[in-house]
Known about the structure:
With 196 residues, the protein is α+β, with helices and mostly antiparallel strands. It contains two helices and eight strands; from the N terminus they run αββαββββββ. The chain has an eight-stranded mixed β-barrel with strand order 1-2-3-4-7-8-6-5.
Amino acid sequence: MKRAAELLMAAGLVTTLAGIGFRLYSGDQQRRARLEWRIATSASRSVGGAASETPSNEIAGRLFFPRLNQEVFVFKGSEKENLKRGPVWLEVTARPGSSGNSVIAGHRDTHFRFLKDVIPGEQVLFDQGKETYSFRVARLKVVKPNDRELLAPASQGLLTLVTCYPFYHIGPSPRRYIVQAEFTGSSSYVIGKLRE
């Protein structure tokens, strides 16, 4: 009995340390992305270039929720390693800011935890370096993991953010939380100062 209790305690400690390690790693990756973005956008703006270009080969853009003061860098490619670094843009979907459905997925226990606080009608900005795209949250919904509706093409500009649900569930999540925002416009306005 004592041996079983010791094994359970050890397993709990390992799980806790792994979770802490994951959070530290993902936070560090976001700090690195912020620095890379700052350097790349400064260089890109000084030499010019096409408005739709992103200044980084790895970063798709910067997602910003003004009401919540939440900023997160989105990586290109949905590889498992990228998902540890931050939310990822599923490149089989439309590019954010273009017509069509752009899907971005992220972990609920790190980068997309704040999605639980998003409300319909609020603004979402997606900065690609030279162009900032504005969206308005239209729908919040919970779906089954195999629901492919969220990947469906759209005729208008649509930003679909996906994370696991429930937010505080331990273990594999049985559902997905979806935030869908509709495109409202774009400008060459650059989102306010990067958070330090």
